[in-house]
Amino acid sequence: MGKKIKIGGLISGTGTNMDAIIKACDEGKINGEVIFVGSDNSDAKGLKKAEKKRIPTFVVNYAEIMKNFKHAPEDHFFPDDFDFEDIKIKQSLLNKETDILKVSTFIETRAIAEAALIEQMKAYPFDLLVLAGFMRNLTPYFIDRVNTTPGKPRIMNIHPALLPSFPGVDGYGDTFRYGCKVGGCTVHFIDYGEDSGPIIGQRTFPISDKDTIDTIKQKGLALEYQLFPECIQLYAQDRLACVKMTYTNDTGDISQRTVVKISQE
Ligand code: GAR
C-alpha cells in the first residue's frame, strides 16, 4: 500500500459526509487521513464532530465578510495576487448578463473570503480537498491556487442529484418536485462552473409514489456515505485521469468535454 494521502475538508452544516470520510480513513477503506476540517459557518455541527476526533478545524465567516464589505467596501484590502480581470474572464458561475455591480461584488467578496481560506489551509499541506456539504461556490481565484498542476484537479465535491440534472443548492428537493422516478448523487471534480466539473462516480435509487423529500434525502445520503469514500480511495490509489475528449455529432458540430477515466487496480 502506498503512502496515505492527506485530505482537507470543507463543510457548511451537519458534516455527516465528512464523518463518513473520517470513518472510512480510520477503517482503512481510504488510504488517507483527514488533516483539517474548515467551514464558512461557525455553527456548523460537523466542526464539533471533527474536534472530538482531534482533527484541527477553522472557520472563515463568509456571512460576516460579505456584510462588512457591503457596509464599507473601501475598508477592504484584496489579496496581493488578486487579478479581477482574470477571474472575471474565467468566472462561469454567473450569467454573463447579470449586472456588472453584482458580478464585481461577488468576485470581490469571494476573493477576500477565499484568500482567508487559503491562508488557514497553508498550515496543512494536503493532497486532496473534499467539499462535503460546503455550500459556497468557489471562484477561479481559489480553484487556481489549489489546482496548481494542469490536468490534475484536486478539489472533489459531492452533489445530491444525478448531474448534470439539478445543479444548485437543493438537489434532492429538485429531484422530488420534478417527479423523477430515480434519484441519485454524484461525486465530481470542480471546475469554474456550478456543479459542472468532470464526473467521477454516481449512484442511483428508485423513487416511488410513496416517497417524500425526507425519504429521498435519506436514501440519497446513505448512498453518498458509500460513494464519496469510494471516489476518494480511487484518488488515493492514483486511478483517476482527466482526459479531454472531442466528439463530433451527426451535423459535424464538435464539442469537447473533460471526462474522468478510471484505471483498473
Ligand atoms: C449532502 O446531501 C451533500 O450532497 C449536499 O449537502 C448535504 C450535506 O450534508 N451538498 C450540496 O448540496 C452541495 N451543493 P452533510 O453536511 O450532512 O454531509
What is the secondary structure topology, with strand pairs?
Blueprint: E1 5-11, H1 16-26, E2 32-39, H2 45-52, E3 57-59, H3 62-71, H4 84-90, H5 100-121, E4 128-131, H6 140-146, E5 155-159, H7 171-178, E6 182-189, E7 199-206, H8 213-236, E8 240-248, E9 254-262
Parallel strand pairs: 1-2, 1-4, 2-3, 4-5
Antiparallel strand pairs: 5-6, 6-7, 8-9
The protein binds glycinamide ribonucleotide.
Residues 11, 13-17, 46, 132-133, 135, 158-160, 169, 171, 221, 224 line the site of glycinamide ribonucleotide (GAR).
What this model shows, in words?
- This protein starts with a strand and ends with a strand.
- It has one domain (5-240): Formyl transferase, N-terminal domain (Rossmann fold).
- It is α/β, with parallel strands linked by helices and 265 residues long.
- The protein has helices spanning 16-26, 45-52, 62-71, 84-90, 100-121, 140-146, 171-178, 213-236; strands spanning 5-11, 32-39, 57-59, 128-131, 155-159, 182-189, 199-206, 240-248, 254-262.
- It is built from 8 helices and 9 strands.
- The model has no long low-confidence stretch (mean pLDDT 95).
- The protein has a 7-stranded mixed sheet with strand order 3-2-1-4-5-6-7, sandwiched between helices. Strands 8-9 form a two-stranded antiparallel ribbon.
- 37% of the residues lie in helices and 23% in strands.
